[in-house]
Design a protein that fits this description.
- The protein is mainly alpha-helical and 106 residues long.
- It has 2 domains: 10-40, no CATH class; 49-105, no CATH class.
- Helices cover 46% and strands 9% of the residues.
- The chain is built from 4 helices and 2 strands.
- The protein has helices at residues 13-29, 33-37, 66-78, 92-105; strands at residues 49-53, 84-88.
- It has a two-stranded parallel sheet with strand order 1-2.
Length: 106
């Protein structure tokens, strides 16, 4: 929808890009608060999350199964060392089963 009001003034594209560049440069040049507080040491990520999306699957080999889901949740915890699993999808029963398994596994 085109803005047809004559009294409305917005920001120009050039001004927006200049501001975005300044913010990006400041973020790259200035030390972060956590790095400054720890004397410049970087501890890496403190939290690791995985989005686990449920689907019906396009083939029998990719269809949802409880055994595969349990194996995936174990891998997410034990091999990826994720401490958060965000379960998404459209089948309430599969969502509930998967979320319960993820909660039980910690």
């Amino acid at each position: 929808m085109e803005n047809t009001r004559k009294d409305v003034q917005g920001i120009s594209r050039a001004r927006f890009l200049a501001g975005a560049a300044a913010v990006g440069l400041a973020g790259a040049v200035l030390p972060s608060t956590s790095a400054a507080a720890t004397g410049g040491r970087h501890g890496g990520l403190r939290h690791r999350g995985v989005v686990y999306t449920l689907g019906a699957g396009e083939t029998p080999g990719t269809a949802w199964s409880a055994a595969r889901m349990r194996r995936d949740i174990r891998v997410i915890r034990d091999e990826l060392h994720a401490d958060t699993v965000d379960v998404t999808g459209d089948d309430v029963e599969r969502l509930t089963t998967t979320a319960a398994e993820a909660a039980e596994r910690g």
